[in-house]
């Protein structure tokens, strides 16, 4: 064995259920990336505590390994089963809320979900983004402002929704490179965007895979309440990923992926209820009307909010952690 | 929306970083399987605490999702990358130790590892299980006894090891259905098994996949110390998955998958050092000699040990948990 050099790591041997955690931490402690070291430290602690607290059996461990392999195997660019798993465990909503602390009057974020694509077309105001003739017509008129109430122009507003059957375009095998039910609209000098779409409907998240089977075992339904997704982007502003939900939806208080927030629930009106609107936007008076004022924060405001929130966690840990670049790392790094 | 019925689950809305955990638990609380409900409860708690404590960023979450998908994608029946991930995080060793509490004088278990197969041939005593002519010859003479020292016959002893280059047969593309470096030997009426093999060598765990890349980032080496795997099975006895490690190996105290235990380390002798042994077993006196006495516990002893260990965890939780079928479940289930 002359060809092998004894590695320069803390020695360990004779591992037990009690000392294994410290030993794994010790061998990971050579990691030069302080943030990664911190993440692994916390991950290993929680993973081991989970196994000890539950006394996870080998049979259950084997089933979990198989489940995770299946989740990976079924995942593709258009079917993000691991994102879905994170969604149904409430992790996606939590991470979004952590990374985007609620700030003053700014619009709250919510889960991205697995159906955003990067191939939506830029369209002009008034465009009908859905080709589904069975959908109930909807006119959306929104504004984009900053936290001081000033309109923000040239914000790329990425919108996506299902068809009237509750399916996104990417869930159809013949979708090819023709996006449907999605588009990017740019805000004008008054911060306004408007476009035609269809009234969102509730829909099941994909339930024919391992995550769907898990929900079944948990006796959870797999529905999301009616909503329309929005992603707002402009250099200098914190990217906002959010969605608007229709009030009164049967799944409003039991969203399978925990995305609903009170501030994101809207009441649809009728275009005809407002004098002159149908003519101005060239739609039938029966068309449903969605209005919303999005409020963006700047990148600098977001950076500060994250920094402050991280510092609050560090303070609670009494000197063990510090904040570098907005992220928590061990103080001794 | 007349076709949808409002589900009968606890209502939730307006989720924050603080109340999301209780809300996810509430919606999972309809699960009729008490054990699954308990596992999910603890999993969600740890997962959310991990995200809150580290303030996991969306970028880090995205990188984790991609990592997990990659781990799933590269996994096959002969490349168990999720098992490997569990191994390098110390989880596999921990779960084995939990499921097989150390009992009296019984042989300790250790990690199964990702290279066990189910197609090893049953061979007669004295068979050479390795076809690698470059390997250093080894004669293994072992016994299998119960905790009272009585020999156990008809135990199927599944053995597997790498070749002299540190690769298992399944790591060669042309392996096909011809197992090599693995076999099943059955104990005789005296509890004895003996077979020929080659002296184990240290080897790297597969490091060309996502788990290997993680170890690189952590500045961890990917070597396992020299060892030979054993799985011992007989109806009525607790299946023992273990391995024997060679004393003095350079990686003895830094095993990449945390498998080494003091009681499983052996000193190899020379067959020629014992009068008459070379002639009796028809090998050269220079052949290395591995001897070990395995001690199995019965299924009933294992069941009792698990039950008692689970009860100790339940007692610590002061009435919140109870033990059913050896597994912890909530008391109110």
TrEMBL record, chains A, B:
Domain Intradiol ring-cleavage dioxygenases residue range list: 127-284
Needed cofactors: Fe(3+)
Keyword Cell membrane found: no
Keywords from the UniProt entry: Dioxygenase, Iron, Metal-binding, Oxidoreductase
Matches recorded under Gene3D superfamilies: Aromatic compound dioxygenase
GO molecular function terms noted in the UniProt entry: catechol 1,2-dioxygenase activity; ferric iron binding
Keyword Metal-binding: yes
GO biological process: catechol-containing compound metabolic process
InterPro entries noted in UniProt: Catechol_dOase_N (IPR007535), Intradiol_dOase_C (IPR000627), Intradiol_dOase_core (IPR015889), Intradiol_RC_Dioxygenase (IPR050770)
Superkingdom, natural source: Eukaryota
Segments forming domain Catechol dioxygenase N-terminal: 33-106
Family: Belongs to the intradiol ring-cleavage dioxygenase family.
Name used for this protein in its record: Intradiol ring-cleavage dioxygenase
Origin species: Stachybotrys elegans
Species classification: Eukaryota, Fungi, Dikarya, Ascomycota, Pezizomycotina
């Amino acid at each position: 064995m002359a060809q092998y050099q004894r590695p320069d790591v803390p020695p360990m041997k004779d591992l037990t259920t009690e000392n294994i955690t410290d030993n794994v931490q010790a061998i990971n402690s050579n990691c030069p990336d302080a943030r990664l070291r911190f993440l692994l430290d916390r991950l290993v602690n929680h993973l081991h505590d989970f196994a000890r607290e539950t006394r996870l059996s080998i049979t259950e461990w084997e089933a979990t390994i198989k489940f995770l392999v299946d989740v990976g195997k079924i995942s593709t660019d258009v079917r993000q089963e691991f994102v879905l798993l994170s969604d149904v465990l409430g992790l996606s909503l939590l991470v979004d809320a952590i990374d985007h602390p609620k700030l003053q009057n700014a619009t709250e974020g919510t889960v991205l979900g697995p159906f955003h694509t990067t191939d939506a077309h830029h369209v002009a105001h008034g465009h009908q983004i859905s080709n589904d003739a069975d959908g109930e017509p909807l006119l959306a008129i929104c504004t984009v402002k900053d936290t001081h109430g000033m309109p923000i122009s040239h914000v790329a507003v990425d919108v996506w929704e299902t068809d009237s059957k509750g399916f996104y375009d990417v869930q159809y095998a013949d979708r090819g490179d023709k996006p449907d039910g999605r588009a990017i609209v740019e805000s004008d000098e008054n911060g306004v965007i408007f476009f035609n779409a269809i009234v969102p409907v509730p829909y099941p998240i994909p339930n024919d895979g391992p995550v769907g089977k898990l929900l079944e075992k948990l006796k959870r339904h797999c529905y999301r309440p009616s909503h329309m997704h929005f992603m707002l982007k402009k250099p200098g502003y914190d990217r906002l990923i959010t969605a608007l939900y229709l009030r009164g939806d049967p799944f409003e208080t039991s969203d399978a992926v925990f995305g609903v927030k009170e501030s994101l629930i809207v009441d649809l009106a009728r275009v005809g209820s407002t004098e002159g609107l149908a003519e101005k936007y060239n739609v039938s008076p029966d068309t449903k009307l969605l209005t919303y004022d999005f409020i963006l924060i700047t990148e600098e405001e977001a950076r500060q909010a994250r920094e402050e929130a991280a510092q609050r966690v560090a303070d609670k840990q009494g000197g063990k952690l510090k904040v570098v670049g907005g992220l928590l790392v061990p103080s001794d790094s």
